[in-house]
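Ticket #760: bound-state structure for zinc ion.
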Amino acid sequence: MAKTAYEIRICGLVQGVGFRPFIYKLAYANNIVGTVENNNEGVLIVAEGEKVQIEKFISAIRTDAPVAATISDIIPQERKLNGFANFQITTSRSYSDEVTEVSPDIAVCDDCLRDMKKQPHRIDYPFINCTNCGPRFTIIRNLPYDRPKTTMAPFKMCPQCEKEYKNVLDRRFHAQPVACNTCGPHYTLHLGEEKITDLQQILKITAQLLADGKIVAIKGLGGFHLACDAQNEESVKLLRQQKNREGKPFAVMFGNKETLKEYHFLNSVEEKLLTGWRRPIVLLKTRKALAASISMGLNTVGAMLPYMPFHYLLFEHITVPALVMTSGNLSDEPILIDNEAALKDFAPITDAIITYNREIYNRTDDSVCMAVNNRERIIRRSRSYVPAPILLNLITEGIFAAGAELMNCFAIGKGKQATLSQHIGDLKNLETLEFYTESIGRFSHLFRFNPAMAVADLHPDYLSSRYAEETGLPLIHVQHHHAHIASCMAENYLDEKVIGISFDGTGLGTDGKIWGGEFLVCDLADFERTAHFEYIPMPGGDLVTKEPWRMAVAYLFRYFGESFLRENYISLFSGINHQSFEAVIFMLKQNLNCPETSSAGRLFDAVSALTGVCPLSSYHAEPPMRLESVAISDGNEFYPFSFEKDVISFKPAFIEILNDFLNQVEVGVISAKFHNTIVQVILKVVTDISAKSGLKKVALSGGSFQNKILLTKAENKLQEAGFEVFSHTLVPSNDGGIALGQLAIVAKRRSLNNKFNKLI
Ligand SMILES: [Zn+2]
Ligand SMILES: [Zn+2]
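RESOLUTION: The complex was predicted; output attached.
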């Protein structure tokens, strides 16, 4: 048979995910000779062989590619025969930069789970992995991704593992963390002073402890978990106390999908998210309740399935349907990764601690997502998502984006990509701030990042803004809500004028006030604020986020005055200490410590508090989450509002909400009508802006769009009205995605200024 030759270009995220070994094996299997190399676009293959085999080869590239690879294009082009003798992985001459892509961690694959039961040297081996699965980012110290540069370095491969590692036809060919019972890391159970290293003993004892209602710390892939029986209310309550986590819901892990389905409703998108290689926590509607203290009254639970071999082994032994698997940290500190620290910190609050002797280098929390309008929406982007870059249509090289303050995540620009850090957390916490600076150092090193300029939030007191300032790099400050919309535009490849709706809790505006209910007309480079929610005072400043009833008082004070509040104290605020209530009225009257805000989050807080759903908040965004949770959301009824000039006022809505509430209309109905009101506001204002500007594309961003009812209805109603709607699927709509927007804004401004040969 005559041979033909093809040059095949593979575009997308195909570097650092085991792609070249995959191609090597595939070429071997199809009798193809030639070369494979990384290049600036992705991977370049030169393939020579029989035409039908080359066709088979190309189609298998698409169907069998490593799970962490994203192929955007395969472009084959016929070329002259070269007469290669074999197939080789080569280093490219044309490739200008080192390969700096790092694969995210991948849940253990089905093949490995089968091997775990039949390969003699890997029977029940809890660190089994192959080229298609296993730890990646969490163990990588440096590039190129070779074993000595990972935390597997201290473990010398046994001859058997080495043979597999070197055999091109083996699934463990070039699998850097390859290991077995003979040569790899192992677990230790710490029971007080006693240390148990026999795995079967560990599993048996742990299962018994959990069944007895005990709390066990278990080292995971990106950090420790604290685990207990998810059906045991006493244990869950105790864990909540020990962790000093008053009200925030706990995540749970089910042993398998079938059991999970008994407890939660699951549509096909949610099922795909749960069972995919990333294994995030997925927010699911409850069908049958576990212990009440898990969700603390919300109608959803964050659930996940096992992703480490150890999880599977543990569920073989335990009898309970699900375990609480919450981040192993105290209060709001970063998740613990270090064995010594865990032994010290967890000893007083747990009954046993399970460690293993491989270091976690890069800390990652479990990622959290949900499905809205049949698409994945990421709430916390960390394990198994990070550090896969976001591909952009902009040159981002050298830009460092510092992110925001709460739910911080930073980003670095390389080529036309943005690499976002894992979820860092609230920088106001000292340990978290250390995690932030350490991670910036590690990302810069790992990705060979040469910073040329920095971008930070407009708020000068955000610790991320201060950090950016201290770098000494040329620094650009960008407005918070513009950055939100820019992040949504960037991930959707939008580079034009759009209508941006940016709803969240807080962000400094260009007028020095706190924004958060914003309608912008913007492109990537700049924005104009075209409409916003009415400014309302926040009595006590930031304290209102912990005491949302203060916002309810502030709205009523603004709309109906002091005497109305006093007359209705008993019917509306009887749960609130009278002295505090009077103090707030005094502050409002005197305009003392009452910064003004147009925040959508504070509006939700006010309604949630006023209706008695959540007058006091114990964690971030609790009031809107509870309000959403109680809504009976099938109807379309809404409250009136006013929109004059560029200001949306909710006075007409508050009149009716009060009426409904005092007439004992069900809170679920009020909540639903309130959600519909916000959707109507969106529809009205967007229609108005569109009529004036001719714009038809709408971008939705900001933390408020984590509200499922709001996002679903806003998208649907806008689409029905003929608008093209863009929202987030790759990065969070909350502040965890804002670094992407910061990066995109500065990349765009730089490209414009380069054209005119000016400095920024
Ligand atoms: Zn595997
Ligand atoms: Zn071995």
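RESOLUTION NOTES: The first strand starts at residue 3 and ends at 13.
TICKET STATUS: resolved
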